Amino acid sequence: MSAAGGRWRTAGAAAVAQPWDALMIAAAAYLLVGAARIHTLVPGAHLIRPGLLFAAIGMLAYLQSSHPERSLQRLRHPIALCMGFVVAWATLGAPFGLYPGNSIRFLLTNFYTTVLLLFLVAAAVRDVMDLRRMLGIYAAGAVVFSIFAALPGGYRSIGTGGYDANDSAMFVVSALPLTAYYAVTARGGLARIVWAAGMVVCTIAVVRSGSRGAFLAFGAVVIYQLLFFRALRPGWRIAGAAALVVCLLFAAAREPEYWERMSTLRNLDEDYNTTEIAGRRQIWARGVGYALQNPVLGVGIHNFSVAEGLHPTIVRLLNEGIGVKFSAAHSVWVEVAAELGLVGFAAFVGAFLVTAVEVIRLRRRARIRGDPVSRELSGMADAMGAVIVGAAVAGTFLSQAYGCILWGIMGLTLAVFKVAESAAVPVESSVYAAVPGRGPWLRPSVLYDPRAASPHPGTVPGR
């Protein structure tokens, strides 16, 4: 097949938008349940274990699916290899950890089902349209979550099984770039207004959380959008960043204690996280020590609190009758380094580095080709780059290394790059048509059926 005229299409994908099927529905539902915790809005829904239910339905649907874009070969990407290595290393190290039973129990009852979220989300996506749907599901879940989180009572209104304020803020701030993306690219003025309103609601929820880590993550997202979101023209990058800042200032004005709490970031020497033995700085220092003492396999997945209980300083305080909390790592980076060793940590960090490289690569491809498909995929990759940045900064202060938020994000990122690899095959005729009269950035491409446009039924024009 020839690349004449610079025209491209998604290889192996149908020419028309494919309908939702069982696997897409199950993966989307699992994403809403796992990351957005939507089921907690329904009293008693947690009793049926919806996460496990949708994971099982998704796996059955995957085994019955024969779509070529869902083969395991399509998931052979460096991100999948890095995250897969993390899973394998955690499994390998579990029997050799400080408390093997604790690690094995966590793997079987929690971690493996979380890994399934990454797999199902990435595998379910068949083409650009599926990708837009799945990214939209994550963003919409954050908007719904934020609406209920902004009600009187804050995050307690989410219900049993919900995150605490800091975890909630991590989820919401990670979805902010996607709400901004759809506010620009959504088809129709009403859809853009809805997504813009969603962006405002998410910002209010971030403020309501009172999370200092989320505040730093919010700043990182704004800086990324301003400096690195190259799919947007400079004027629109500035406008988007300014809109997020104005939303934050507006929401913070209604929370009189917000800036007082954020101001403590300037004087951390007097903060409990610095001064107390159960503060983050001392926990992180001990965590680095656990990693250096066990550089290969670590102390075992989900065993950080066990290591805390065996630390000489804490043992001494306990012997003196001073109560000390056996704390979690309060950082995804310290958590992985201590529990999986430096080898597992390298693979975990590698997934983030690969994402940065892939975003740059897709951006360069879009600049060289200039076709709607490449531009749209580059825009999605840029948006996911901002999502990763928000999650990475917020996760620096939280024990969410094995949670559905981070693994769901990695599944979405893998899906973007999977579709981008499919779109790299040149053909003689494009199955994408740009929307006439492009807006300020990129109006999403519209799929059409070339056979329907052909004067001879059953043939494709130009082939």
Question: How is the biggest beta sheet arranged?
Answer: 2 strands, antiparallel
Q: Quote the average pLDDT.
A: 82
Low-confidence stretches: 1-15, 154-161, 425-463
Order of helices and strands: HHHHHHHHHHHHHHHHHEEH
Span of the ends, CA to CA: 10 Å
Strand line-up of the largest beta sheet: 1-2
The structural class is mainly alpha
Determine the number of helices (DSSP H or I, runs of at least 4 residues): 18
Number of domains: 1
Task: Let me know the number of strands.
Answer: 2
**Strand composition percent:** under 5%
Structural overview:
It is a single chain. With about 475 residues, this protein is an all-alpha fold. It has one domain (about 25-270, about 330-425). About 65% of the residues lie in helices and about 0% in strands. The longest helix is centred in the last third of the chain and has 38 residues, at about 330-370. The model is unreliable at about 1-15, about 155-160 and about 425-463 (pLDDT under 50).
